[in-house]
């Protein structure tokens, strides 16, 4: 069996291909028993699993139950989570399974197959043995009518250029007083597609972001004892946040935000004695868990890629801002020991849990929905105004960024998050923005990710010789 196996499995004419509308599967679509078909022999960790597990397979049946329980045939219990709406990860009996859901597209209609798993990776939790697998839900039996999404046909002509529009800036500044909009001359005449890539890219799009979860009484009590304001850039005069960077025209925000979290947490864990700058290009060029300059997700990068492959420092794989071949200077890497969605699984996040994780562990990486008006943010506490820029029709994206603090703004009367962006220091409030906190503004309180980096025992400083 070759790459055609999937088409045969799906019984569809068009190959599942990269498209500008991603898969969108929900928990209710995936609960039940799955049969996983696994490569007969262990494979290398760098295996390209896209080609499937081979013609000879072993099989394993795993049951996924509410809320996040995975169980094998012997009754052994583990956990699972959706990975955004696009895949799932199972952690059970010493093995981690991860795969995306397949989809096909023709003429503006996208079909998600939420009862199937494209070839993905399975490996033991110590990363010693790797295999490829694909999956099929067997109970309830495969859906005869898969999920179908109709592509909202693009609002704009291809290759349209962004034009500065004082009208929308004035309209935003007139309609509310909590934040200020301004024009960014450097965006003028840039392709709209490029600006959308900067804001997450088409493959990071979430059609249906989850809502933030209810706050339990325990969590409420714990969170009520936290400080009223926090800023990891100034904790008794110490700064634990690495410098602002600029991702350029590549849809690599997910890699920048992931690196920014690990960099900051390394500084916190080592009291600023280790301050590596990590390489987003390594992720863009080398990660099978993301789609290079077309987007990706922090759970799979700060978390899974960091655990499975580790991060090089910037010096060994400098940023190019394009889908360059996977080339780097081999060197010691930074790994992550634990990772999860804040709350334990996709959909379990809320504002109180985010503050607890922020204070206890360091900055947390989040995604939020970007609307037209955000592109003009200059200062203040952002909230979506509902105003659309008809001259620069921006396709909604999900942008990955890093929350470094929170507080209450006396001027606007709003609670806010302080957020590190990757659009250079000239953007927003010196590269940062603030956004309304406590009401899941633009879904920013629904999909935070936390991960624990492992510092180097043999740290010698950035770009120093060999260990
Ligand atoms: C992985 O395999 C697929 C299907 O066989 C192929 O299209 C793709 O180019 C391969 N990717 C890499 C990085 O080798
Ligand atoms: C594709 O969709 C458009 C718009 O819905 C329709 O007019 C056209 O006939 C479709 N083409 C095919 C080949 O189905
Ligand atoms: C952390 O570093 C600061 C500044 O160098 C120092 O004053 C402080 O004592 C250190 N804290 C600990 C716990 O080592």
Write up what this structure looks like:
The structure is a single chain. By secondary structure, the protein is an alpha+beta fold. Helices cover 17% and strands 27% of the residues. It contains nine helices and 20 strands. It has helices at residues 5-10, 27-30, 166-175, 192-198, 217-224, 253-269, 280-286, 298-308, 351-361, and strands spanning 32-39, 57-65, 69-72, 77-83, 87-92, 95-100, 103-106, 109-112, 116-124, 130-139, 147-150, 179-181, 230-231, 336-341, 364-370, 377-382, 397-409, 414-420, 432-436, 449-453. It has an eight-stranded antiparallel β-barrel with strand order 1-2-3-4-5-6-9-10. Strands 12, 13, 15, 16, 17, 18 and 19 form a seven-stranded mixed beta sheet that branches. Helix 5 (217-224) crosses helix 9 (351-361) and helix 6 packs across helix 7 (280-286). The longest helix is centred in the middle third of the chain and has 17 residues, at 253-269. The relative contact order is 0.14. The model is unreliable at 1-20 and 463-467 (pLDDT under 50). It binds 2-acetamido-2-deoxy-beta-D-glucopyranose (3 copies). One 2-acetamido-2-deoxy-beta-D-glucopyranose is lined by residues 3, 48, 50-51.
